[in-house]
Amino acid sequence: MRTLCASTLIGEFFVIGFAGLVAMQTSDLSTGTVWAVSGTAMVLSVLLCGMLTRPGGVQLGWALQIGLIASGLVVPTMFILGAVFAGLWWASVHFGRKVDEAKARFAAAAAADAA
To answer: Where, by residue number, does the polypeptide cross the bilayer (predicted)?
Structure first.
């Protein structure tokens, strides 16, 4: 799960950065405000890569997805990109857990065969 989710979060890091550049040019928000929000979200996306296996890591990832969709209020394209990344996040969590379960089953079967 960690690999899939981390890949999604790193992709979001770049999308958030590019959305910040667009927001600087197209919105009435000050440059400082745009980069305070974008920078915080970018740092959060990188930090979440290391927090995925800890309690609350996946839930913080969902909070980031909601924030990404909400950023469509400033950059309308982010409604679509946020929804796409929320779908990728769901798939990463869902299928990542299935892969982890399969790995655990194979490891248990290999240990039983070795014994």
So the answer is: 34-54, 66-91
Measure the CA–CA gap between 86 and 62, rounded to whole angstroms: 8
CA distance 112 to 53: 27
Phi (first) and psi of residue 11, to 5 degrees: -60, -40
The structure's pTM equals: 0.87
Distance of CA 82 to the CA centre of its chain: 10
**Measured between alpha carbons, how far is residue 60 from residues 29, 44, 47, 77, 103 in Å?**
26, 9, 10, 23, 25
CA-to-CA separations, 94 to 10, 55, 88, in angstroms, rounded: 18, 16, 10
- Predicted confidence (pLDDT) per residue in 70-94, tens digit: 999 999 999 999 999 999 999 999 9
- Using CA of residue 39, residue 41, residue 43, residue 45, what is the dihedral sign? negative
